[in-house]
Amino acid sequence: MIIHFVGHSGSGKSSLMRALIKVANFQKPVWYTTRAPRGDSDDEYLFGSVEWFIEQSKQINLEEVGLVYGNLYATHYPDTDSINYVNVANVDGVSQAKGKYLDDSISIFVECPEEERLRRMLARGDSKEKSQERIEKDRELFKNAFHVSDYKITSSSPEDDVKELLDILKDIELSKGADILVRK
């Protein structure tokens, strides 16, 4: 099973992903990008030039390939038969995954007010100008996120967001007969 979090910049997607990895039997996929590193959290990505990215895509099965804010991004799932994955994706990435994995892909839209998203982006070290630019672009980029999402979390606080996520996971277990909340 693959669970995708989709939502605007600063909405809490990555925090929910990390929380899910801690409380359930999920792993992160391998992420590839051509963007420059942003800070401490960037150990989650493999970075390179456009040429490097193209070469990687020829050597392994990169999925959910997309162009976001002028940078290429892609995901690699080494073993979808025996490992549950959790990922952060944009609308196109979720659509690609749903097309390939059908019933094994769940998407959760993370909604958060713009003022709170701006506060979060500034707190993680993004510049005010870049943060406001992303908020503007996100309005267009995520206008169809509801159409690809199976569930929605309205972000209020990290603790409440995780509680809401756990309720969604229990619902998924019941509807799919899956045992995804097995603790590590």
Overall form: globular
Distance between the termini: 16 Å
Strand order of the biggest β-sheet: 6-1-7-8
- Overall mean pLDDT stands at 87
Which quaternary structure do these chains form?
single chain
CATH topology of the largest domain: Rossmann fold
Largest sheet: 4 strands, parallel
CATH first level of the largest domain: which class?
Answer: Alpha Beta
Secondary structure: number of strands: 8
Q: Would you identify the CATH H-level superfamily of the largest domain?
A: P-loop containing nucleotide triphosphate hydrolases
* Structural domain tally: 2
Task: Give start-end ranges of low-pLDDT stretches.
Answer: none
H and E order? EHEEHEEEHEHHHEH
Strand content: 15-25%
Based on the model shown, name its key terms:
four-stranded parallel beta sheet, Rossmann fold, Guanylate Kinase phosphate binding domain, alpha/beta, single chain, 184 residues, 2 domains, four-stranded mixed beta sheet, 7 helices
Give a structural overview.
By secondary structure, the chain is an alpha/beta fold. The protein has 2 domains: 1-27 and 84-171, Rossmann fold; 30-76, Guanylate Kinase phosphate binding domain (2-Layer Sandwich), CATH 3.30.63.10. The chain contains 7 helices and 8 strands. The chain has helices at 13-23, 50-59, 91-101, 114-123, 128-141, 145-148, 158-176; strands at 2-7, 30-33, 45-47, 63-68, 71-76, 85-88, 105-111, 151-154. The strands form 2 sheets. The chain has a 4-stranded parallel β-sheet with strand order 6-1-7-8. A 4-stranded mixed β-sheet has the order 3-2-5-4. α1 (13-23) packs across α7 and α4 (114-123) packs across α5. It is globular. The two termini are 16 Å apart. The relative contact order is 0.23. The model has no long low-confidence stretch (mean pLDDT 87).
